[in-house]
Amino acid sequence: MRNTGTKAMALLVAVAVAAGMASCASNTAGPAATGNQLNGTITVFAAASLKAPFTQLAQDFEAKNPGTKVNLSFAGSSDLATQITQGAPADVFASADTKNMTKVSDAKLVDGTATNFATNLLEIAVPPSNPASISSFADLSKPGVKVVVCAKQVPCGAAAETIEKASGTTLSPVSEESSVSDVLGKVVSQEADAGLVYVTDIKGAGSKVKGIPFPESGKAVNTYPIATVGTSKNKDLARAFIAMVTGSAGQKVLGDAGFGPS
């Protein structure tokens, strides 16, 4: 009887100790898990050429992080940089070139250092029927060809100007737009015979336009940087979104959209 009682007492002690350890482990894990949980809202200012992949990435981010919201604002990088320097509430800035990111950085509005996450090249977009019979960059300078480009302060416009100088070809555009999506729109509506847009824009447009690659495009590769805006009120969430963009998941979405690696 004495041995039986001793064994019973030992068993009760062991159970109590195990329960206490489980309780401690539970109390330790609870706050840590809660502390790592992301929540809140961020606003992402992104170059117009990023609309398709960033829309997908925002949806994926929200799905993986319940309780978060990613608001997206797309426009020409120069317009976005100006808005940020004038006080527009943004948490993340993704530019289609390093020049406009530098403007924001020089204004002391970049938190940390910008990270390059993608590259892009220009391509000629024409209506499916190609009414002006465009087959090369030089063809864009032919008399009577209605070509549309981005304004020079916009990354796609700066790239076009670089190619003009490098190739010795002078274009006489009928319109200079504030974003690459506006250039594409002119071609889709057939208000223009051709437009200089990114490879990714043509891929995203599907059968609405025909893309014509040209070797001179390699003279103006656009590099895309992304950074947390210094005035962000939710930097943890902003950094988490940037981590997704620059990580394997983001790079796959960007690659599928036609972007090259940085």
Give structural notes.
It is built from 9 helices and 10 strands. The protein is of the alpha/beta class and about 260 residues long. Strands 2-1-3-10-4 form a 5-stranded mixed beta sheet, sandwiched between helices. Strands 7-6-8-5-9 form a 5-stranded mixed beta sheet. The termini are far apart.
Quickly list its features:
5-stranded mixed sheet, 10 strands, single chain, 9 helices
How are the secondary structure elements laid out?
Layout: H1 2-35, E1 40-47, H2 51-64, E2 68-75, H3 77-85, E3 92-94, H4 98-106, E4 110-120, E5 122-126, E6 147-150, H5 155-167, E7 175-177, H6 180-188, E8 194-198, H7 199-205, E9 210-212, E10 222-229, H8 235-246, H9 248-256
Parallel strand pairs: 1-2, 1-3, 6-7, 6-8
Antiparallel strand pairs: 3-10, 4-10, 5-8, 5-9
Helix pairs in contact: 3-4, 8-9
Summarize the structure.
With 262 residues, the chain is α/β, with parallel strands linked by helices. The chain has helices at 2-35, 51-64, 77-85, 98-106, 155-167, 180-188, 199-205, 235-246, 248-256, and strands spanning 40-47, 68-75, 92-94, 110-120, 122-126, 147-150, 175-177, 194-198, 210-212, 222-229. The longest helix has 34 residues, at 2-35.
* Rounded average pLDDT: 89
Count of beta strands: 10
Which structural class fits the helix and strand makeup? Answer: alpha/beta
Question: Measured on Cα atoms, how large is the radius of gyration?
Answer: 27 Å
Question: Main β-sheet: number of strands, strand sense, barrel status?
Answer: 5 strands, mixed
Report the sheet-strand fraction.
15-25%
Q: List the uncertain runs.
A: 1-35
Give the end-to-end Cα distance, rounded to a whole number of Å: 77 Å
Q: Helix coverage percent of residues?
A: 40-55%
* Apparent shape: elongated
**Number of discrete helical segments:** 9
Strand order of the largest sheet: 2-1-3-10-4
Give, in order, the helices and strands.
HEHEHEHEEEHEHEHEEHH
